[in-house]
């Protein structure tokens, strides 16, 4: 499929370059808006404007919402006031807000100046909600109904008002103060006679979010209840907007990307990798690299305490990378499972004892195997040196045990202290485990090898 | 919200223990099926059966679909044939298939024996599709329409048939051979007069999957096109089922968990952490630990080549943890960004040169800062030892450069060779970078310090 599309797009480019614009327009409008946007995103600034202007007005808005932020910026810059005015009125308010949050302030003013007072008011209200709160994610276009309506009246209302609503399949029933009283789906409307009252068929057990809820909460609600849309109410339980499932999916993806970045010791970036400036990338990475570098200097300090032992038996040094690496890997295995388990709600703080017990048993199995393999390997390399084999094997066993338990518990400790558990991912765990595994190794070496 | 619910559930448990079952039933049926299932999942086997049997038949099926696999198994074991027969007919076929895939084979036979021939046939067909293919994920219950129908007729059909369809908001228009010809949403039906022909209003630019497509493809299509449901066709373009957005969201979450596990050098597990047996956990972890342990023995081998230098200047050893750790961290920072970028389709193989150029520049910024910090730190610790400072600083710079470029390129190389790029995550990158950073460090030490 990928390939098929690439061929299509190269054909489009040819039409554009040959100025065969009528043909290009015919071909473009057959496509889905996401595909058209993908095509325009690949064009240079001049060509992208030509292609964008080919689109019929309504479709142009849908395509505009799918474009990259920098293409949107470029197009807004080049548009006349009347073109801009059409687009801004035609966009769903949440998409308009998303765009405005990325635009430089002079362009924000240009856009707002071309919006009707009503749209401007809606946009301004949404811009006030804190970043990543339900209020900032929601759209304000939804189907609002009254419980005194019949099914037939509700259908008439949906029919008349649905052309500019993002989700038309769930109606929200409110009283005259906009207090949310019930929810009725189009499926339920279809299953009931036209003269049934909404009051009798609506569901009053409403899954909802408050404007101040964070996006993690929203993602959890969508995951748990398989929703198509989620109503958002203010602190007085008045309906102010809805979050649609497609926005919830995008948020889910952003959340996961952030978790991956944090778990690799980076400050999460706002833009995709290829669009992020070199200095921003460097800034996102350097803090943690410095913190971890200073931590691993402590490990170096531990090594310097054993310089005498190393001088006596330099071959000890050759086991260090294997011990510290394996400890780091074991620790990141257990910490990753716990961090992810907590992120998707499978593990909570009450499970700490279960986790220690589980990691303890896993460590016995895994640690024993690794210890035996090491013992054999040492004896093959240095025949007769049983004590060295025992030292290395035993260090391995203790390191794995310590790493698994530290890796399992630290993310929970972080959560308990209200610190983001992703901070306890591989890089930090590895650094901590490094120091401890060296102490185990040299401690045992001093005891067993009498050096 | 969490707390509120916990309180509720503890109240439920009290009602159950006091055998106040009528009251419990009243309270339970007010809840969402996902919440009821969550409550039953916390109960022991006897209590969970009592609670489950309290539920009205239709609700019981919905709750059953949300239960943990082991609770489902327990309930299936204890059900009479007629109870089982009701549940299996009432379940959406894809949910029934999900359950069957986890049940031991004697219970699978018990379930299939209680299904009607038609349901049994549907289930058996779906069980034949390979794991994680579109065919195995789809549901076979969808709204099938004909293009000769009018909007009014389509509504009548939806009204009559929607009670047992998972997604009733998209109708699929097929010819008499079930070839998929078009798609029409309930929104479009609502926006058109009742005598309009589907042929005239349906959209023929259909986003669809083939039964053999893998689940990554499905997730990509949902992400890109903001779908509520995705039609699945066979190789002859005949419609065989649909994937609904809630299933797509679950798949997305499973995919991400798998990626996290693979990136922490584990074989992905089938069940949640707390439900996975100790030996399965150990088995999932040991393979990669062994592979990486043997790789880091190579690093140890490199160290043993420099035993002479270490004997002359033992303090060199104390810089090793810091250099290898920082190299590993830098490498996992860049590899994580590239792996994630490829997973969500932001980066593809054609971007390799851009990535090298970007990582090269990021390395200059980050590497310089770390090098200078190290130079100063060495001079503070060992005043006058400029050459050692230069050796450590320069090694740090070269290590960061090498680590970022290796971390950026290896995931792309893996993809090019059709290997899963997640394999190139922190653990393997760290091990590779370890060996290279030691060669850089001792190579530079020999040159600069003349040892």
Automatic annotation (TrEMBL), chains A, B:
Q: Which Pfam families match?
A: CBS (PF00571), MgtE (PF01769), MgtE_N (PF03448)
Q: Would you tell me the Gene Ontology cellular component terms? A: plasma membrane
Extract the coiled-coil ranges from the record: none
Q: What region holds the CBS domain?
A: 202-258
Q: Does the keyword Transport apply?
A: yes
Question: Is Transmembrane among this UniProt entry's keywords?
Answer: yes
Instruction: Give the stretches traversing the membrane.
Output: 286-303, 362-380, 386-410, 422-446
Primary localization class, coarse: membrane
SUPFAM superfamilies for this protein: CBS-domain pair, MgtE membrane domain-like, MgtE N-terminal domain-like
An example of a GO molecular function for this protein is:
metal ion binding
InterPro entries in the cross-refs: CBS_dom, CBS_dom_sf, Mg_transptr_MgtE_intracell_dom, MgtE_N_sf, MgtE_transporter, SLC41_membr_dom, SLC41_membr_dom_sf
Cellular compartment(s): Cell membrane; Membrane
Give the domain of life.
Bacteria
What does the record say about its membrane topology?
A: Multi-pass membrane protein
Q: Which UniProt keywords apply?
A: CBS domain, Cell membrane, Magnesium, Membrane, Metal-binding, Transmembrane, Transmembrane helix, Transport
* Signal peptide interval: none
UniProt cross-references to PANTHER family, sorted A to Z = MAGNESIUM TRANSPORTER MGTE
Please describe what this protein does: Acts as a magnesium transporter.
Q: Do you know which NCBIfam families this protein is assigned to? A: mgtE (TIGR00400)
UniProt record similarity statement: Belongs to the SLC41A transporter family.
State whether it acts alone or in a complex, and with which partners, per the record: Homodimer.
Name it.
Magnesium transporter MgtE
* Species whose genome carries this gene: Johnsonella ignava ATCC 51276
